[in-house]
Amino acid sequence: MNLLLFIQATAEEMPVDELAEGAEKSMNYMEMAKAGGLIMIPLVLLSFVAVYIFIERYLAIRRATKEDAGFMNKIKDYIHDGKIESALALCQSHDFPVSRMIEKGITRIGRPLNDVNTAIENVGNLEISRLEKSLPTLATVAGGAPMIGFLGTVIGMVKAFFDMANAGNNIDVQLLSSGIYTAMVTTVTGLVVGIVAYFAYNILVAKVEKVVFKMEARTMEFMDLLNEPAH
Fold first, then answer.
1. Cβ atoms within 10 Å, residue 5
2. How many angstroms separate the CA atoms of 169 and 68, rounded?
3. Which long-range contacts (CB under 8 A, 24 or more apart) does 110-115 make?
4. What residues does the MotA/TolQ/ExbB proton channel domain cover (predicted)?
5. CB under 8 Å to 27, separation ≥6 — which residues?
6. Which of 104, 145, 167, 231 has a C-alpha 20 to 30 A away from that of 19?
7. Which tens digits make up the pLDDT trace of 132-171?
8. What percentage of the chain reaches a pLDDT higher than 90?
């Protein structure tokens, strides 16, 4: 409270022309980032990590959602006609999770249906694990960046009070600005990185869930195909 009162009193004592000159200065973001101190380094690195993971996973999940519209119809026709090798070749010619799951199921045709379903589910779990790769890291960035920012806030305020204690009666705003800059800049940066990573994480999770739903639907469709009575 004493610090805030001092800053307010100092601002009131400044000449009008100095206040006007300060108001005309534009905010230099590079200088503000430098004022954040060493805490800005991990925050910047975390921001790059978050952006990289989001772009890489977004493209990977997008590729996984692509599926030939007539894929399952062709599989049904091949199996009905007894063309197991053709069905396997069709699965191998497509590169997405559903095709690999169906391929595993086709290789188990002739065994008990529970064994077929288990084999498909095992492949599905592996595919989901691949899709979710790096998502825990993104979640860690979302939670860790604000905490690092708050650490910078504490360090900045400690520095400001340390400078104020050592200045004695010669306290001015210029003396305290370094610590206050560190406190505020790191807080803002940590929150921005954390918020962006949080939204990115939830977007990717929602897309993975859509892929999982499609995989489950195709599994049920394939198992229903195997359960059809022979003609």
1. 9
2. 77
3. 113/223, 113/226, 113/227
4. 97-216
5. none
6. 167
7. 999 999 999 999 999 998 888 888 777 777 777 776 666 6
8. 30
**In 3D, which of 33, 31, 11, 30 has the Cα closest to residue 22?**
11
Q: Quote the tokens at residue 87.
A: 């069905």
Instruction: Tell me the residue type at 59.
Output: L
Q: For the chain, what are the domain ranges?
A: 37-61+135-212, 63-132+217-227
C-alpha 223/C-alpha 215 separation (Å) is 12
Angle between helix axes 113-131 and 40-65 (nearest 10 degrees) is: 140
CB atoms within 10 A of CB 198: 18
pLDDT of residue 26: 55
H-run or E-run covering 139: helix 135-167
Q: Read off the pTM.
A: 0.76
Return the closest-CA partner of residue 222 out of 94, 96, 35, 74: 74
pLDDT tens-place string over residues 208-229: 999 999 899 888 988 888 876 5
Which position has the token pair 């001015």? 172
